[in-house]
Amino acid sequence: MRFDAALSNISKKSISFGKSLLSTIEPFDTDDKVKSTGNGIILPMYVYVNNRPVPKAEAVVSVFDHGFLYGDGVYETLRVYDRVVFMLDEHLGRLYRSASLIRLTMPKNFDQIKAALYETLDVNSLENAYVRITISRGHGPIGLDPDLCKEPTFVIIAEDMKDYPQSYYEKGIKTVIAQTKRNLKDALNPQIKSLNFLNNILAKIEAKEKEAYESIMVNASEHIAEGTISNIFFYRDDILCTPSIACGILDGITRRLILDLAVREGLTVREGEFTRNDLFAADEVFLTNTTMEVMPVCKVDAVRYGVGSVAKLLRKVYRDEVRTYVESIKGSGPSLLGI
Ligand code: PDD
Predict the structure, then answer these.
(1) Contact 123, 59 (CB under 8 A)
(2) Which fold is adopted by the domain 31-160?
């Protein structure tokens, strides 16, 4: 009874106060569902759900979706520069590998995903964007058995790229070493880019509680592993060091490219097992991922680092590589754009 009364109260208030109250009780953020083109034309933002783009406010999935109930699904984060999806084949390759590792049959083939992706960019008029492709097991009765779900749920979210503040690149970001250990790789394979991110979220909470931006996670053997959404590098005794895949980390696409670029630049690189004391003794530390690219670190716990020449060099050559990639794709005609 009380609940009904409360509900009718809300709907009465909604009617009398209009959208301002409604927006406080709506589950979706309606404020940014429109995009201004800069010439007075307002476009609704669209999210691709299963087989078509739908307005953001209508982009919903079932509460019985096993992605929601169990984190049963996989995803990829991609970055679009000047309407070209950077390293698209590498990201889609990893998406398919993640799906295969959880025995999820992809609902679309490579070309269909590319077409859906470019349709989403087009309908939102996006040039420089953040893209997330999410595929969950789909909806079905409660229970862990994946066969309870008949069809995977397929979602593409694409938004204007909100760059990290320039000051982060100039001064570096603060990090801490989390108490939360990286999941055992034999318990949950880190090559599965899964929707189940609680291990990393717990470490991120630790960072926030200590007013740091990112946590660095160590593995069960106390070796440095990775950030919550990033891979880690450090420069010490003229060697660029990064934890090896065997440390239980995601094989980051940016990490691999940075290793190649570093070798091309004549740096000595070492992938291996490192302790927190190795990190504390470093001259420079930086993080990599698809959205932050190369992000210098100014602090790990109480140890401070300058933004050094190696991070600056690698950030520059990474950006040059992006430019070359974008130009080469653009120069090779529209078919390579997946449309
Ligand atoms: N995260 N390690 C983890 C745990 C990650 O989640 C990511 C990427 C990386 C870097 O991978 P890449 O260079 O391929 O982006 C390393 C993305 C950005 C995300 O979760 O949105």
Answers:
(1) no
(2) D-amino Acid Aminotransferase; Chain A, domain 1 (3.30.470)
Residues 6+ apart with CB under 8 A from 43: 34, 35, 36, 37, 124, 125
Going from the Cα of 335 to the center of ligand 1, the distance in angstroms, rounded, reads 28
Do the domains at 31-160 and 166-324 have one common CATH topology? no
Question: How does pLDDT run across 263-307, given as a tens digit for each residue?
Answer: 999 999 999 999 999 999 999 999 999 999 999 999 999 999 999
Q: Phi/psi zone of residue 237: left (φ > 0), alpha (ψ -120 to 50 degrees), beta?
A: left
Give which of 279, 299, 99 is closest to 191, Cα–Cα: 99
Decide: 72 in ligand 1 pocket, CB within 6 A. Answer: no
Q: Report CA(12)–ligand 1 centroid distance (Å).
A: 45
> Please, what is the average pLDDT of the chain?
89
The pLDDT of residue 35 = 64
Candidates 75, 232, 289, 314: which one to mutate for ligand 1, based on the most atoms within 8 Å of Cβ? 289
The encoded tokens of residue 232 equal 């880690």
Residue boundaries of the structural domains of the chain: 31-160, 166-324
The CB of 191 under 6 Å from ligand 1? The reply is: no
Task: Say yes or no: domain 166-324 is CATH 3.20.10.10.
Answer: yes
Q: How far is CA 237 from the centre of its chain?
A: 32
